[in-house]
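Structure tokens please, single chain.
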Amino acid sequence: METSLLAEPVATATLDKESSDAHPASSQSQPRRSVPQSRSSRPWKRIIIDSALLATFILGFASLALGNILWHVVAGLAFAVLAVAHVAINRTWARGVARRRRTLRGHTRTNAAIASTLAVGWLAIVISGIGLWAGVGSFEPLHSVGVILLTVSTVVHLVMHRRWIKRAAPGRPATDRVRGIRANVA
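Here you go.
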């Protein structure tokens, strides 16, 4: 366990599945690098933020399909705020990955690439959405590309984290619920 700036315990996880399945004798010869995980004592915050994030993303599409631009803008603003909250609650993982970006392997490397793609799509949507709302220039192409990029990478992100989503789902016995997220498990 590592300690964060707030002196709360922070769990760590190995960088890839191969290193966690390695023979104990081989792990003695090489030090195990780990990616810090966010606070594992509050998975319900993560579930609420992630669920609201997905709901606002879907609401943004639905409101636009129904022709209600006001609800589309409101959903977009809520989505932007929730995305920042999602990154904030996962900041320990993000910092650990950023520090070790050149040595990442396995699922962690793929997860970091998807997270980067999500960030680029999110930035494209937010910047172009503000430009469209302000009526400055022609931001429709950037907004469309950002939406496609974000949608595809969101689906991949959800598929990669499907086991965590299933374990963290409400209605499961408390002993089966996730206590934290391991970096090497999708």
